[in-house]
Amino acid sequence: MKITVLGCSGGIGGGRQTTSLLVDDDILIDAGSGVIGLSLEQLVAIDHVFITHSHLDHILALPLLLDSVGAMRDRPVTVYAIDSVLTILRQHIFNWLVWPDFSEVPAERPYLRYAAIEAYQPVALAGRVVTALPANHTVPAVGYLLDSGAGSMVFSGDTGPNAALWDHANHVGNLKAVIVETAFPQDEHSLAEISKHLAPQSLVAELAQLQQDVPVYITHLKPGREQAIMGEIGELLTPGNMPQQLMPGQTFFL
Questions:
Q1: What CATH number does residue 155 fall under?
Q2: 121 Cβ contact partners less than 8 Å away, ≥ 6 residues apart
């Protein structure tokens, strides 16, 4: 399993792109603005899209993807999410007001198929398993466990304090890496709490619950605050435990 980071920023500007991970060539984890850098051929190859939650920075490329290459495909793209997230997509995005309802059109072969999933429910796709994990956010949300069989990666999605995530991660026998958000610097910790994101001190409290010795990568940093956030994390952790900043274009092999 190859995982390519298409976008990992908490915003845009200066080449920054929002959250999306490409798994091999046919699975997306979230569909933020990072997707727009793919070629038409790469877009056509995407069969499965797993959405963590409905916020715009995680779904904005999905309507455009379907519109751009739906006619080039011989089957619909399957969008997986918990039922409450699918309801939001139906009512507020693919509603004929913001965008066409591609689950109904074209009538003879719709471009979109919805698939409701639940937390801890594994979805097996050609030897790869994607499992939704709990997240603690301002809207219904999940993270994901990506498992090739040989190795696994936990992706937190957008989340505030989330003991359930770490409890599950601690029981993954082949865990190789963790990607966790830290959106705000410490001087905006109150905003992080209100919006159910992490800041450096709350990140450290979260990582204290991780009992596995695996690399940790920080994602979703607010534009222009990346250096401050990573610097504050470095001041709170020992060098041997220091997470790395997730970078666009970074690849992982599991």
A1: 3.60.15.10
A2: 131, 132
Residue 16 has what DSSP assignment? B
Strand ranges for the chain from DSSP E: 2-7, 20-23, 27-29, 48-50, 77-82, 112-117, 122-125, 128-134, 142-147, 152-155, 175-181, 216-219, 244-245, 251-253
8 A C-beta contact, residue 183 and residue 226: no
Residue 97 C-alpha from the chain's centroid: 26
- Domain housing 37: 2-253
What is the rounded average pLDDT of the residues 167-188? Answer: 98
Global confidence as pTM: 0.97
Per-residue pLDDT of 52-79, as tens digits, reads 999 999 999 999 999 999 999 999 999 9
Distance CA 53, CA 18 (A): 13
Total domains in the fold of the chain? 1
Query: Across all residues in the chain, what is the average pLDDT?
Result: 97
